[in-house]
Design a protein that fits this description.
Keywords: Cytoplasm, Hydrolase, Protease. By secondary structure, the protein is α+β, with helices and mostly antiparallel strands. The chain has a single domain, classed as Glutamine Phosphoribosylpyrophosphate, subunit 1, domain 1. Helix content is 37%, strand content 24%. It contains nine helices and 13 strands. Strands 1, 4, 5, 6, 7, 8, 9 and 10 form an eight-stranded antiparallel sheet that branches. The protein has a five-stranded antiparallel sheet with strand order 11-2-3-12-13, with helices on one face. It is globular.
C-alpha cells in the first residue's frame, strides 16, 4: 500500500457501501482475485453459444432455419437447442451468439409485440418490429463489449407490401434489410455460399426449405460449431415458414423426407449438389 505518513488511507474514512469487497476494491483492487480474472481472462467461452441461422425469401414469404448445436469453447454443450422462434403471427426470429442472453431477448421481443397488439388493436408493422428489435439489441451493447454478444436475424411476411422480408443486425443494434437470402453465426460464410449457388427468385416454400437444409449441412461440413441433422438421435434443424397465412414451425415428420434425400445425395456427392441441379421440390 502507498505510504500515507501515518495517516489512514482515504478508503478507511470514506462513507460508502458496507461491503468489504467494495472497500477492498477501493483500497487495494489488485488483491481481488475476481477482478484479476475479469481483467486478464476472457470468460465469454464459458457461456453456451448458438451458431448458424439461414433465411430465404420468395413470392410465398420467407423461410428461416437454424441448426441445433450449442458450444462452449471446443465443447458441445447442447445438441438440441432451439434457435428459431415465432415472434408473432407473421414474423420469426433466429438467434446466434450467447444463447442465454439471446433467448431472454427473444422472450422480451415476443412480449413487446404482443403488448403493442393488445394496446393498439393491430399488429405493429414489419418495419416497426425490426426497429424495436434493434432498440432491444442496443440495450445489450455493454454485455457485447465483454464478449457476450447476441446477433439475431428477423424475417416476416409484410402485410403492407405482400412479400417476405429479411433483416440482419450487428451487435450495436444496426439494422440492415437483406435481399433474397442471408445467414448469421459461425457457419454463415459457408451457408451463404451454399445458398448463393442454389437460390432463385421463384422458389416455393418447400424448395426454400430444402435449400436451407442443404446450406446448414454445408455449414456443418466446414464449421465445427454448426450441427448437421442427427438421424440417430432424431434431431433436425428448426425450420419456420412465414407467409400470408401466418407462421408455421415445421414438424420433424415433414423434415425427415427432405433430410433423408439430402443425406442420400451426399452419399453420391459429398460436397453437395451441382449448381442448377434440381433441389427438392
Amino acid at each position: 500500500m502507498t505510504n500515507t505518513g501515518g495517516m489512514l488511507p482515504p478508503a478507511f474514512l470514506r462513507n460508502g457501501s458496507p461491503s468489504f469487497a467494495d472497500f477492498l476494491a477501493d483500497l487495494a483492487p489488485d488483491v481481488l482475485t475476481a477482478r484479476l480474472l475479469q481483467a486478464s481472462i476472457d470468460t465469454s467461452h464459458l457461456a453456451p453459444h448458438g451458431t448458424t441461422i439461414v433465411a430465404l425469401r420468395g413470392a410465398f414469404g420467407a423461410v428461416m432455419a437454424g441448426d441445433r448445436r450449442a458450444t462452449m469453447g471446443n465443447v458441445i454443450s447442447q445438441r438440441d437447442i432451439e434457435k428459431v422462434f415465432q415472434a408473432d403471427d407473421h414474423s420469426v426470429i433466429g438467434i446466434a451468439g450467447t444463447a442465454g442472453l439471446a433467448i431472454e431477448l427473444v422472450r422480451l421481443f415476443q412480449v413487446e409485440l404482443e403488448h403493442y397488439e393488445k394496446i393498439e388493436g393491430v399488429q405493429l408493422s414489419l418495419d416497426g418490429k425490426a426497429n424495436r428489435l434493434s432498440a432491444l439489441l442496443r440495450g445489450n451493447l455493454g454485455m457485447a463489449m465483454q464478449g457476450l454478444a447476441v446477433v439475431p436475424m428477423f424475417a416476416g411476411f409484410d402485410l403492407d407490401r405482400q412479400r417476405g422480408r429479411i433483416f440482419s443486425y450487428d451487435v450495436t443494434g444496426g439494422r440492415y434489410e437483406e435481399h433474397d437470402y442471408h445467414a448469421v453465426g459461425s457457419g454463415s460464410f459457408f451457408a451463404r455460399g451454399s445458398i448463393k449457388k442454389m437460390y432463385r427468385e421463384d422458389i416455393s416454400a418447400q424448395t426454400a426449405t430444402a435449400i436451407a437444409l442443404e446450406a446448414l449441412y454445408d455449414a456443418a461440413d466446414d464449421d465445427s460449431a454448426t450441427g448437421g441433422p442427427d438421424i440417430a438421435r432424431g434431431i433436425y434443424p428448426v425450420v419456420a415458414v412465414t407467409d400470408i397465412d401466418g407462421v408455421r414451425i415445421l414438424e420433424d415428420s415433414e423434415l425427415l423426407p427432405i433430410v433423408e434425400s439430402i443425406i442420400a445425395g451426399r452419399q453420391r456427392r459429398p460436397d453437395g449438389p451441382l449448381v442448377n441441379m434440381e433441389i427438392q421440390s
